[in-house]
Amino acid sequence: MENITKHPILEIPERKKIKFKFDEKELIGFEGLVISSALFLNSIKIFGHHVKDSSPQGIFCANGQCSQCNVIADGIPVKACMTPLKDGMEIRSCNGLPELPIDDEPVDVSDADIITTSVLIIGAGPAGLSAATIFGEHEIDVILIDDKDRLGGKLVLQTHKFFGSQKDVYAGKRGIDIARILGDQIKSLDIVKTWINSTCLAVFSDKLVGVLKNNEEYVLISPKYLLIATGAREKMLAFPGNTLPGVYGAGAFQTLVNRDLIKAAERIFIVGGGNVGLITGYHAIQAGIQVIGLIEAMPSCGGYKVHEDKLRRLGVPIYTSHTILSANGTNNVESITIGQINENGESLPNTTKTFRCDTILIAVGLNPVDEFYHKAKEFGMRVWVAGDAQEIAEASAAIFTGRIEALKILEKMGIEFEEDIDDLENLAAIMKAKPPEPITLNITEKTEGIFPLFHCNQEIPCNPCTSVCPQDQIKTYDNIITNLPYFKDEKDCIGCGKCIAVCPGLAVILIDFRKSKEFPSVTFPLELSANKVEKGIKVSVVGNDMEFGKFEVKRARILPEFPKTQLITVELPLKIAKEATGIRLNESSYNEALDIYQKGFTDNETIVCRCERISVGEIRHWIRNGIRDFNELKALTKVGMGSCGGKTCTPLINRIFREEGVAIEDIIPGTKRPLYIEIPMKIFAGIKDKKED
Ligand code: FES
């Protein structure tokens, strides 16, 4: 695998090479990488083998949540996706259970320090950062903690431009840039203390919060007010082959590619047509990775239509009403088998297709990371929740809910503020709304002058095009942010191209009839080339589902305010000019399905609990024997008792209960106890001076 050295959006920094060993082999990584990314860089996807059945293990979440990525680093078992690589590190694959030292010495155990603060915010993503800004601006002392090495949460993985309004949530800017803006606001507020590389482990009945500070010290925080902004974790799916290395979450892929600049795959297949799946496909193509296809179980994709159109234009086949039947391979993913399903989710015979790929990305939704919130509530703490931990939605909604919950806390503190919480709640509700069905657009008959043409065909909350027009000629109908935009045509368009460059959906083109009515000039946005496109080369002009042929570039420019979006102008015949929606530089490479035999699988070959390798078949067996209590299931099978603490399997088990006709209210939930995240015993016990633990 390679290091990404060119990217149309991301800056490629100079990275210092460092040496490390994996299973005795000397390898090269980069300073600043986590171990998992350094292993991927060296084409190592198998990090160990499971103790129960010796099956190969690799990453799934790359976010510290699933505990699949354990390796032994300098003698200590660690999560590869959360542990920074160090020069000279000796890493071993984790085969079976890690060994304990034979001899152990008595140690001095010390109590953790207790730190007080007015507000503790857990999570420095869009919600946590927005909330911390509000507190900082009101001179309230805050500790903001995050388990990653930088501020921004998932924003730092997002290379695409965001929807929403420019005024409130930086619409038209890329996630990576919004992370920087929000982070800079925090850095200017001395009263906000930020602890990065710090993980919240537990909340306790004495209203203390246990934190692993800076990955090396266990401290307890006694907050007067607690705000949980811990985000979300990716959902897993149960299907044969789901634990093969090479099957992992779309967020993990974004982490490898967009944060750590590793070309993590050659050929990916995406499961899930929501915004995360669609946009990850686009990110893959930006990184030079081929997207073989995307499946969605519903009859249409659930994500924004403009995100879907970006993939369709680039020739990615999208199979709706399809599900994954299996991931195939011995030690790694070698292919995927998909099949069509009916409206009841039942497989249709003779519809299976198998495609060769090395990676299958699971993008079937997110679950809130909300266990801290519920536990704190149970213990009577003054606790609020924001962002995805409150409700799964876009990052723009999280910016609002972070502000709203911070204001609610200020209200409780008796501090006055100017903002109106109800207004903000209304705006947040707009951002959270599910996208409606796309609309068939009536394309204008006009063939004179120059004007923007909007291929924006779904009423989603987005209006940056209305804010950038220097002639103030773009509006949304009735000035409502979810309504479609239009060109007012009261003053001349000056052809500046800002509306094209700012559009998050790449859904605006500029059409210019001033020189020719038969062959107007048409300008498209392009975010796929790290090199500036040269005048005179030929590019493919495409609609959302068709290709119109190759045309010569007449002009290529980049606006200073939008340095990563190239504006490419070609001259097109009139009948194509208004239908074309984009350009691409390379040929589409549609992949035919492989003509290979596909075997059937049983429930016993589908893993539901990755940590303890418990199959769907085992769970079904006990449900059919009358088990309704999660704790009993645990005792009988060990399900949910692995190192992830049941975070990955619990939703899947609930689903099996549903499939077996058991109502959710008849299921007795399992007992949840702190700790929610693993911590080395040495640090938990406050032992600071021993190495041989
Ligand atoms: S991949 Fe490391 S914890 Fe999930």
Overview of the structural elements:
- The protein is of the alpha/beta class.
- Strands 2, 3, 4, 5, 6, 7 and 8 form a 7-stranded mixed β-sheet that branches. Strands 9, 10, 11, 12, 13, 14 and 26 form a 7-stranded mixed β-sheet that branches.
- A hairpin with an 8-residue loop joins strand 28 and strand 29.
- The radius of gyration is 26 Å and the shape is globular.
- The two termini are 35 Å apart.
- The structure holds FE2/S2 (inorganic) cluster (FES).
- FE2/S2 (inorganic) cluster binds next to loops.
Helix/strand-derived class? alpha/beta
| Alpha-carbon distance between the two ends | 35 Å
Helical content (DSSP H or I, runs of 4+): 10-25%
By DSSP, the count of extended strands is: 37
Shape call: globular
Q: How many H/I helices?
A: 17
Biggest sheet layout: 7 strands, mixed
CA radius of gyration = 26 Å
Which small-molecule ligands are present, each listed once?
A: FE2/S2 (inorganic) cluster
Mean pLDDT over the residues = 92
Beta-strand level of the residues, as a percent range? 25-35%
Unreliable parts = none
Characteristic terms for this protein:
693 residues; alpha/beta; seven-stranded mixed beta sheet; 22% helix; globular; binds FE2/S2 (inorganic) cluster
Short description:
With 693 residues, the chain is an alpha/beta fold.
SSE topology:
Blueprint: E1 2-3, E2 17-22, E3 25-30, H1 35-41, E4 48-49, E5 56-57, E6 70-73, E7 76-79, E8 89-95, E9 113-122, H2 126-137, E10 142-145, H3 166-169, H4 175-187, E11 192-195, E12 199-203, E13 209-213, E14 217-228, E15 232-234, E16 247-249, H5 250-259, E17 262-263, E18 267-271, H6 275-286, E19 290-296, H7 305-313, E20 318-320, E21 322-328, E22 335-340, E23 353-356, E24 359-362, E25 366-368, H8 371-378, E26 383-385, H9 395-413, H10 421-432, E27 450-454, H11 464-468, E28 474-476, E29 485-487, H12 498-502, E30 508-512, E31 521-526, E32 538-542, E33 547-558, E34 566-571, H13 574-577, E35 582-584, E36 607-609, E37 614-615, H14 616-624, H15 630-637, H16 650-659, H17 681-684
Parallel strand pairs: 2-8, 4-8, 9-10, 9-14, 10-11, 14-26, 16-24, 18-19, 18-24, 19-20
Antiparallel strand pairs: 1-17, 2-3, 4-5, 6-7, 6-8, 12-13, 13-14, 15-25, 21-22, 22-23, 27-30, 28-29, 30-31, 31-34, 32-33, 32-35, 33-34, 36-37
The structure holds FE2/S2 (inorganic) cluster (FES).
FE2/S2 (inorganic) cluster is lined by residues 59-62, 64-69, 79, 81.
